[in-house]
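Predict the holo structure. Ligand: calcium ion.
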Amino acid sequence: MSRIKKDDLLNVAVEAALASSNIIMEASSKPRVAGHKGVTDLVTDTDMKSEETIKAIIRSFYSEHSILAEETGKDSNISDYLWIIDPLDGTTNFVHGYPSYAVSIGLFYKKAPLIGVVLEMPNMKLYTAIKDQGAWCEGEKIESSNTNNIKRSLLVTGFGYEHSENWEKNMRLFKCLTDDTQGVRRLGAAAIDICHVAKGYADGFWEYDLKPWDTAAGILIAKEAGCVITDLSGDRFDINDNNILITNGHIHQDMVNSIKRYLN
Ligand code: IPD
Ligand code: CA
Ligand code: CA
């Protein structure tokens, strides 16, 4: 059991997310200059400033906790508490002015998710969760959808920057699952995609090659909203796994079966 009150930890995560959103929203109305981490993998000054701000706020409260952040990596602290930060999820959207990006802050305690905060921008929707206490969006408890037939489902996915073998597999799934369902969306910010399944806007999400900071906060929000989370084979998901499947639970086994069929 965490010795620090969960509400206090959540408040710090929310404070950090709001501070980060001020930086991101201010930058969104100015010219945005992107550098490249890979051919299509962009990074901006805003990613860096947001990360610096989030880390400074967390450190001002909990200097002994560990932090893993996308742009600066893991610090040298050894602690049961690990904050996992994506300072700007959906950087490509942000650079182009496509209105879907987020900040994602997850806290793990003894390797298990304890707190999750995703702030969706520019519409400023705050998603939060505390382990065993439910998931919330803008102060209202959220639950995943009731859709129990894959044919009536709406799915969402994403594609990593590397056009690898997994990318090819995902293209195949995108095509086949588009045929099987009422549609598959591809919006470009994994943390938001996951929260949309938690909120019941979509019934399922899958992706390959995500990193811990893409999913750390979202998986708790989804779980607390009633979602089922596994890898694409239906086995237990670990934060370091390179593929993930999140559904409302009702269509989970059908999704696993379909994925198996389409990948063979
Ligand atoms: C990316 C987004 C995107 C997903 C990529 C991620 P970034 O994160 O979440 O939806 O498809 O795999 O890397 O680079 O914008 O933080
Ligand atoms: Ca990301
Ligand atoms: Ca990012």
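Residues 47, 70, 86, 88-89, 91 surround calcium ion (ligand 3) (CB under 6 Å). The helical segments are 6-28, 45-61, 91-96, 165-180, 190-199, 212-224, 252-263.
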